Amino acid sequence: MGRKKTFDEHAVINAAIAVFSEHGYTGTDVGMVCERANIGRSSFYNTFDSLDALFLRALRDYTSSGIPVREILRTGTAPAPALIMDRLGGELSKQCEDDNRVGCLSANTAAELGREVDAVCTILDPDRRAWLESYRIVLERGQIDGHIRPSLDTEVHAELIHSVLAGLRIAARVMPPDSVHAQATAFIEGLCTPEGLTALHDHTPPHRYGAESPGHLISTESSAQ
Questions:
Q1: CB–CB of 19/59 below 8 Å?
Q2: What value does the mean pLDDT take over residues 105-117?
Q3: Which residues lie closer than 8 Å to 106 by C-beta, 6 or more apart?
């Protein structure tokens, strides 16, 4: 008879995502995950076989969490510049709320491992393609609405959005939050027509951070959807 589980597998995956995001693939060991998840080593190995298997599972679950966000980009009714700002500004603000500012597991993994591990690439590559397609769709809709510059190459700028967010996520680990958010705003403003600028600022209230605790977001309103 199989052993009965005494822990929530989903909670262990979330703990693993947090540890891998903070310490990286090479900086994490089984003991760190067990400690964060409050489980024993025997329970770990009875479920996940190896740390590598857990890492791939955590990365796969982490990337799948972006599916509903991509759906908002594809079908959201807010102006395209505001949807893109929600994506970049929202993710960066969430990261800056975290005292450790560990950021994105996908971006951190790409920065650490590059294309060294085939199994990682089989997860990150289709995830990246899905994000690029979503960015392209929202940019093209913005062009039709007159909010995104008509001369802009939507395929190239979809890749640029993805790259800028990844870069700012890395920068946000050490940079003052207001500076990170200002850079995201300046980038998105560069995509806009004059009408798009108006739509962007009408739908995107400013983010404010506490001066005494620069990593702490004290007031962020949701953009209109």
A1: no
A2: 92
A3: 59, 62, 63, 124, 127
